[in-house]
Write a structure and sequence with these properties.
This protein is of the alpha/beta class. It has helices spanning 9-27, 34-52, 57-64, 72-79, 121-126, 134-150, 167-171, 174-187, 202-209, 227-234, 241-248, 252-258, 276-294, 299-312; strands at residues 80-85, 98-105, 108-115, 154-160, 192-201, 213-217, 221-223, 263-265. The protein folds into 2 domains: 6-54; 61-312, 2-enoyl-CoA Hydratase, Chain A, domain 1 (Alpha-Beta Complex), CATH 3.90.226.10. Helix 10 (227-234) packs across helix 11 (241-248).
Length: 320
């Protein structure tokens, strides 16, 4: 059963009525509700089109966080073959909020790394809701180094509200681990492409997304802090998250104008969760194109390309 967001309540009522009619028809074969159900379906499709034609930044945040949205594990299983997970940071523990390993993408050997939020209560707790601890970022550094050593392109999939801010994480050097991961992204002489598939939150996202090419799904978000966190700091009121989201320019369209991201991957009408298969195939196409753009460049050129990208960020969009 589809989980509806707050702004989708009118849509939920219409689709619910259509399903009730179909349930009645299944229970009573003599009942013909074809025309009524069809009319409700048409009305629902028109409302869905209207709701998603011009989403506010806050509504995009809600869509990006939808629990049924495809997560990193879904992309890895669908897009990569011969995936061999690699675990642990060789120092403290294995952080399940970060998954990564060797794989093939379109039959090309690659290293894939991403945040995994989980898809039910048990897995979400195990994955810490996609909020990585220091050992997660140190695992990522280890995998980035391995990719650099063997000349493997790296694909990262970003979906995190931010790095875990708990006491233990801070004691084990959270900020240093994030900085090391970001630094390693800038240093490796292999193609590095990243896709923001849901939330791209704070340094926890930057640590994976400091790439040659960065793509965002249409309704994903990427920002230095959550709108709720921003509102709590600026207005001392987390309920002003709508105003914060508007001011932060965290949507894919805003970030492409600023040069933070390079391309926007269209989502099915109603968001990625309404057609996960179509969304995943769109991401496949974007990764394929980004890797093709970097094909043939040597290590020095790739590092220089990455450095120039981040030095130039914001310049072309500040006047907008």
């Amino acid at each position: 059963m589809t989980q509806y967001l707050d702004f989708e309540k009118p849509l939920a009522e219409i689709e619910g009525k259509a399903e009730e009619l179909r349930a009645l028809a299944r229970a009573n074969e003599e009942m013909d509700i074809t025309e009524e159900a069809k009319a409700l379906d048409t009305k629902a499709a028109a409302l869905l089109e209207e709701l998603y034609s011009d989403l506010t930044p806050w509504r995009k945040c809600q869509v990006a966080r939808h629990p049924e949205r495809p997560h990193c594990k879904d992309y890895v299983e669908a897009l990569f073959t011969e995936f061999t997970p690699l675990a642990g940071d060789r120092n403290f523990a294995d952080d399940l909020a970060v998954m990564g390993g060797l794989a093939r993408f379109n039959d090309q050997p690659v290293m894939v790394i991403g945040h995994e939020k989980g898809n039910d209560t048990k897995s979400r707790i195990e994955r810490n809701f996609g909020m990585a601890r220091p050992e997660g970022y140190r695992k990522a550094v280890r995998l980035l180094e391995l990719a650099g050593r063997f000349g493997l392109p790296v694909v990262t999939l970003v979906d995190t509200p931010g790095a875990y801010p708990g006491k233990g994480a801070e004691e084990r050097g959270q900020s240093e681990a994030i900085a090391r991961s970001t630094e390693k992204c800038l240093q490796i002489g292999v193609p590095l492409v990243s896709v923001i598939i849901g939330e791209g939150g704070s340094g926890g996202a930057v640590a994976f997304a400091t790439a040659n090419r960065v793509a965002m799904l249409e309704h994903s978000v990427y920002s230095v802090i959550t709108p709720e966190g921003c509102a709590s700091i600026l207005w001392k009121d987390s309920e002003k998250m709508r105003e914060a989201a508007e001011a932060m320019r965290l949507t894919a369209s805003d970030l492409k104008k600023l040069g933070v991201t390079d391309r926007i991957i269209p989502e099915p009408k109603g968001g990625a969760h309404r057609d996960a298969e179509k969304t995943i195939e769109a991401v496949r196409g974007a990764i394929t194109e980004m890797l093709k753009e970097l094909d043939g460049k040597d290590g020095k050129a790739l590092i220089a390309d990455r450095r120039r990208k981040y030095l130039d960020i914001g310049g072309k969009g500040l006047a907008a």
